[in-house]
Amino acid sequence: MAIFSTLTPVFLAVLCILIAIIFKNFKKSEKKPKTDSKPPVPSRPWVDEDLEDDTEINPGEDDEELAESEGDVSHVPFSLPRYSEAEMLHRSQEFYALMNGRRSVRFISPEPVPRDIIENVIRAAGTAPSGAHTEPWTFVVVADAQTKSEIRRIVEEEEEINYKLRMGEKWVTDLKRLRTNWVKEYLDTAPYLILIFKQTYGMHPSGKKRTHYYNEISVSISCGILLAALQNAGLVTVTTTPLNCGPQLRQLLQRPLNEKLLMLLPVGFPSEDATVPQLSRKPLDDIMVFV
Amino acid sequence: MAIFSTLTPVFLAVLCILIAIIFKNFKKSEKKPKTDSKPPVPSRPWVDEDLEDDTEINPGEDDEELAESEGDVSHVPFSLPRYSEAEMLHRSQEFYALMNGRRSVRFISPEPVPRDIIENVIRAAGTAPSGAHTEPWTFVVVADAQTKSEIRRIVEEEEEINYKLRMGEKWVTDLKRLRTNWVKEYLDTAPYLILIFKQTYGMHPSGKKRTHYYNEISVSISCGILLAALQNAGLVTVTTTPLNCGPQLRQLLQRPLNEKLLMLLPVGFPSEDATVPQLSRKPLDDIMVFV
């Protein structure tokens, strides 16, 4: 008992430290569930014009937006050109045939393409719907040879690492059949590179942040229209998402912090010896269910 | 000291309990950082054909995919119809004008639309590029009146709650100018509802899961092409994302667990008294940067 008696001050001290540690841990684990689990009544708003993605919603910072809202916009009558049933059928067949001729092409000719055409396809992309009509896209068109080379250097450096170190064996095999690797000659040869940035938030004139709901899905829809416009104009591209290059490319192109690279599209004519993997598309019955 | 001496067995017991608690907490907090913070070498694969989203990657479950891979696919020559410069310019202008006539329309006529046309626009949507050519989309076309009513009931029930309870005042104001509320008459009147599901993973014949990289972005691109195809055929829609209805609608339509509702598009002719909010689109200079 004598040993215990002399040790008690030590025990007390240890006890105090332990209690302090427990309190600290307890506080931490109290915080966790709040960020991890969903609140019973989610504050995420409902949207009618667009779709779920990684929208950065900072309710606290947006409080003043209410006062700056454009208010009730007036409505105007809407009509479309009305085609006959035969015309509709013909147009829908023709459009499908046009789209079905599209392939992801990695062999792009250095032949120049008039800038007007690129401007028109980007205008078309800009007609896409977006969450609460925020139009959260920036299309950076790179024609400058030196900037293209710089982009190639950044992309190839990162993708060689991705290819050699980061990817699972499975993924390499998945891509092997597409004959894809980290050498991206098209980044130099294509007359244009279109880098599509999503604006994760916007800015009010007052300098306050404006939430861009569903920005990733909106920009992806816009990219779908861009692909259709390119194919319609007789140009090719390949939809790429260079991993880990976003921040470097954003800095190179001097884009602001609210913009994040979503896609990089090299654009031009197919080179004369262009090839594509012999893949087929799923038949209608595999992608459509009729109820 | 006598008091402390008699208390030491109690202290010892308390100490043991505290140590046990600390060890438990320590284990927990050891696990947390692994899931929260990014690993120095991310195992996320790099992809050349598509784009970042909430892909469900379960490396453990996919190990056997390697053996089942299709291997090296043969490549075939690729060419496109070559237009003159004047033709390219004309086509790109026409396509922009066509797309620019598109608006999100919430007033849809009950007038029937031939099924062939719907099939063609979905065929067109199915030509979109996708991560590693997984084609991770299912288009459920609902023409059945009873199913449409059931969908309307589910969507309106959830959206009334969203509108009244879950949304911030700011968001209500953001949508007010679009004259949007939770009553969705078009869900009954439109001849078709197209519900677009993203397949978060696929299945190998062996029953093993197949990773669908970038499925959300792929399906969104496909939706962009679908919107273009509908506009080209003379039909209207509005891109909606009914919040919180996904699981109920998935069950109603008997879709498998790997499918998640991304969008719901009511499709038809605009009603005679259709109106749209008087919004303008950003000019080219606001969406394009030329380098």
Automatic annotation (TrEMBL), chains A, B:
Pfam families: Nitroreductase (PF00881). Keywords: Flavoprotein, FMN, Membrane, Oxidoreductase, Transmembrane, Transmembrane helix. Residues 48-71 have a biased composition (Acidic residues). The keyword Protein biosynthesis does not apply. GO terms for molecular function: FMN binding; iodotyrosine deiodinase activity. Its EC number is 1.21.1.1. GO terms for cellular component: plasma membrane. One of its GO terms (biological process) is tyrosine metabolic process. Belongs to the nitroreductase family. This is iodotyrosine deiodinase. The lineage of its organism: Eukaryota, Metazoa, Chordata, Craniata, Vertebrata.
